[in-house]
Amino acid sequence: MAETSVEAGGVGEPHPHEPHNEGLASRLNWLRAGVLGANDGIVSTAGLVVGVAAATTESSAILTAGIAGLTAGAISMAAGEYISVSTQRDSERALLSKERRELAESPEFELAELAQIYEGKGLSTATARQVAEELTAHDAFRAHAEAELGLDPTELTNPWHAAISSAVSFTLGAILPLLAILLPPVSWRIPVTFAAVLVALAITGSVSARLGGGNPRRAVLRVVFGGALAMAVTYGIGQLAGVSGI
Fold first, then answer.
1. In the structure, what pLDDT confidence band is assigned to residue 30 with cuts at 50, 70 and 90?
2. Listed residue (158, 157, 163) closest to 34, CA to CA
């Protein structure tokens, strides 16, 4: 629900749904999602190629597994984001359609409801009524969408943007461990990949924490530990598979 607007005489504080904040908040959300997608690409591909490299020194086998993992992961991320965001967008559209219908059928009731919302935020009855009337006169649909639903009708989520962003960020993240495992000499493959992945995870963990306002040190420790654990487990499985000839 929207906070009090500037028409209310400055009562209340700015909030994420105000026009001057929405663009920045949206960009930060996309950036954070991109960083997390890259993080997923790094960890999942690193675990895969390290496991394969532990079982065989054949570069073709490692490359094939890495590309297959990268492709499957990127498609899976894109499909998952598309489905999730499409569902969210459908829900938003349904709510907006309902609100538009209510405004057409019961404008006076909706005006009184909007005034009550602002009165509930601390405005006097007279001021709340004035704010509701002025916002309704300016753009009734948008005023009700923001106040009642917390939605900006012009800024609905885009499933294609989410899908493409997820696929690209996952791919970029996955390229790092793939290069790290293939470029060094055979004896250096695992150590170089471990080092490169852990450094990359430390960076993505720190960036995502700062974007989200969290504790960078705690976030870095979490992602680095998780990545190291994933590579250690898959390396152990690869070793067992290589020794047993599976």
1. low
2. 163
Residue 228 confidence class, pLDDT cut points 50, 70, 90: very high
What's the predicted TM-score (pTM) here? 0.72
Tell me the residue type at 99. Answer: E
Report whether 155 contacts 22 (CB < 8 A): yes
Question: In this structure, what token pair is assigned to residue 180?
Answer: 């790290």
Question: What letter represents residue 139's amino acid?
Answer: D
- Token readout for 98 is 């309902």
Do the beta carbons of residue 192 and residue 184 sit within 8 Å?
yes
Q: Which residue has the tokens 């997390």?
A: 36
Provide the angle, in degrees to the nearest 10, between the axes of the packed helices 59-105 and 159-182.
160
Domain boundaries, the chain: 6-244
Q: What is the DSSP string of the chain?
A: -----GGGTS-S---TTSHHHHHHHHHHHHHHHHHHHHHHHHHHHHHHHHHHHHH---HHHHHHHHHHHHHHHHHHHHHHHHHHHHHHHHHHHHHHHHHHHHHHH-HHHHHHHHHHHHHHTT--HHHHHHHHHHHHHHHHHHHHIIIII---TT----HHHHHHHHHHHHHHHHHHHHHHHHSS-GGGHHHHHHHHHHHHHHHHHHHHHHHHT--HHHHHHHHHHHHHHHHHHHHHHHHHHHHHT-
pLDDT tens string 163-209 = 888 899 999 999 999 999 999 999 999 999 999 999 999 998 888 88
